[in-house]
Design a protein that fits this description.
Elements: E1 9-13, H1 17-28, E2 35-39, H2 42-52, E3 56-60, H3 68-78, E4 83-87, H4 92-100, E5 105-108, H5 113-128, H6 142-146, H7 153-165, E6 172-175, H8 182-191, E7 200-204, H9 210-218, H10 235-238, E8 243-247, H11 254-266, E9 268-270, E10 277-279, E11 283-288, H12 292-297, H13 303-309, E12 312-315, H14 326-336, H15 350-358, H16 364-379, H17 386-389, H18 402-407, H19 412-430, H20 435-442, H21 446-453, H22 455-458
Parallel strand pairs: 1-2, 1-3, 3-4, 4-5, 6-11, 6-12, 7-8, 8-11
Antiparallel strand pairs: 9-10
Helix pairs in contact: 1-5, 2-3, 4-7, 11-13, 14-16, 19-20, 20-21
Length: 460
């Protein structure tokens, strides 16, 4: 219920009279007693905000007398009121900055009636339940945030979710293929959290065998095993007050999963070989390119641990699902990998850019970055051409015409062999030639992978 004793009050701030009229019309349909107040400048908005004490604010980011972000910050510091920003700018920085400043949600022009009503209704429900969206600090966050490049629809969803959850301490599970930027998301979450002055500790769970991973995560006491000459703190202990990033979480052994579950539940553990309980205040961010739900169903991953980790899930889109971002990513990497300090970024031809857009990028953004870095060196201050990129031909997908195969007398064993070989080769491409990673993607033994594609190619 609004604090003015009438219906819910909505403040609309926009310097365009037509936009104000449209939004008034849209939100007035939500309830017969909705009270709508409008303003066209930042100064007028502040006066209306103080007078009307609105339940929801719709705020344009571009005002004639001030930056909408400044108005947003003042509103958020004055009262816990959901603010929905309206912007024509869908760049990653702008979106995240608005969310970081405490915006409840955002709308991108041109405004759709149903979208406006849906967002405002959610904001009103949010207000009535007295659930606040925590304002996220912006100081010190620019460097990490700006490393994530892209303004496509899939990335906008990622930015919005980052902004919503960065300020909390709940676990986050980041999923996505190799090379999609999961570690960059972790850095952004940490940099925009209340823990940003604490450590960000990274652990690649797939890089360590079970016997070493437990000691790496939880530490060990002197004499706990051969070679343990002194007490050693583990990564959870070192991450106290900060964030721990557990990459490739799907590869950890059952014994480590059990101990990790206890840390997530109670924030405590014992070092290997020790009996003293160690407390650690840590925010856990985990990442995987493994289907954890399938791993749970197969008994390889604890279901209770999965649900503890999967409180908030951020799915990183593959590059093939966000090709609109390729030109911006190319420009970013060309700027980063200049041929020499102070040199202008290397130019790229239209044909080369089209080749990049046409490529399927099994290695995602990491593969694109490597391609640009290599092309800058090979171009030697000249124009990057398709030949400089050395992308090769796009990979094709297999389509099985089952009726035709049966009609033509193909044997089941022969078809299965062809499909197995094709999948093995595709996995090797996606793993950039790493036979162990390719075998893990297919959930087969490395030895079997070698038998499918030949030892020489599997070891390449």
């Amino acid at each position: 219920m609004s604090r003015n004793g009438l219906g819910d009050t909505i403040l609309i701030v926009d310097d365009d009279a037509a936009i104000r009229a449209l939004v008034r019309e849209y939100v007035s349909d939500l309830a017969p007693d909705i009270v709508v107040v409008t303003a066209e400048t930042g100064a007028e908005a502040q006066a209306r905000f103080d007078e009307a004490k609105p339940d929801v604010v719709l705020l344009d980011m571009h005002l004639p007398d001030t930056d909408g972000l400044d108005v947003l910050a003042r509103f958020r510091s004055a009262a816990d009121v959901p603010v929905v920003v309206i912007t024509a700018d869908s760049s990653s920085s702008r979106t995240i900055r608005a969310i970081q400043a405490g915006a409840y949600d955002y709308l991108v022009k041109p405004l759709e009636p149903e979208t406006v009503r849906h967002v405002v209704q959610r904001a009103l429900d949010h207000r009535r339940l007295a659930a606040s969206v925590r304002a996220l600090p912006e100081a010190g966050a620019r460097d990490a945030r700006e490393r994530i490049v892209g303004a496509s629809g899939p990335m906008q969803a990622v930015y919005k979710l980052i902004g919503r959850v960065a300020g909390s301490d709940i676990p986050v599970l980041i999923t996505g293929e190799t090379g999609t930027g999961k570690e960059l998301v972790t850095e952004t979450l940490h940099a925009n959290s209340a823990r940003r002055r604490g450590p960000l500790i990274r652990v690649n769970c797939a890089a360590l065998p079970e016997s070493l991973l437990e000691s790496e995560l939880f530490g060990h006491e002197k004499g706990a095993f051969t070679g343990a000459l002194e007490r050693r703190k583990g990564r959870f202990e070192l991450a106290d007050g900060g964030t721990i990033f557990l990459d490739e979480i799907g590869d950890i052994a059952p014994s480590v999963q059990k101990k990790l579950l206890r840390v997530l539940q109670f924030g405590e553990f014992e070092r290997v070989g020790g009996q003293v309980t160690v407390k650690s205040d840590v925010r856990v961010v985990a990442a995987t390119n493994v289907d954890l739900e399938a791993a749970v169903a197969a008994g390889r991953f604890r279901e209770d641990l999965y649900y503890r980790l999967n409180v908030i899930r951020i799915d990183m889109p593959p590059l093939r699902a966000r090709t609109d971002d390729v030109p911006a990513l190319v420009a970013h990497f060309l700027d980063r990998y200049r041929s020499r300090p102070g040199a202008a970024p290397t130019k790229i031809s239209a044909e080369a850019m089209q080749a990049l857009l046409d490529h399927d990028w099994p290695g995602n953004v990491r593969e694109l970055e490597n391609a640009i870095q290599r092309a800058v060196v090979l171009a030697n201050d000249r124009l990057i051409t398709p030949e400089t990129l050395e992308l090769g031909t796009p990979h094709t997908r297999i389509a099985l015409d089952v009726d035709a195969l049966v009609r033509d007398g193909a044997t089941l064993a022969g078809v299965v062999q062809d499909v197995e070989r094709a999948m093995a080769e595709a996995a090797l491409r996606r793993a950039h030639g790493d036979a162990g990673e390719a075998a893990r993607l297919l959930d087969i033994a490395p030895e079997r992978l070698g038998g499918l594609v030949g030892k020489r190619e599997a070891a390449r």
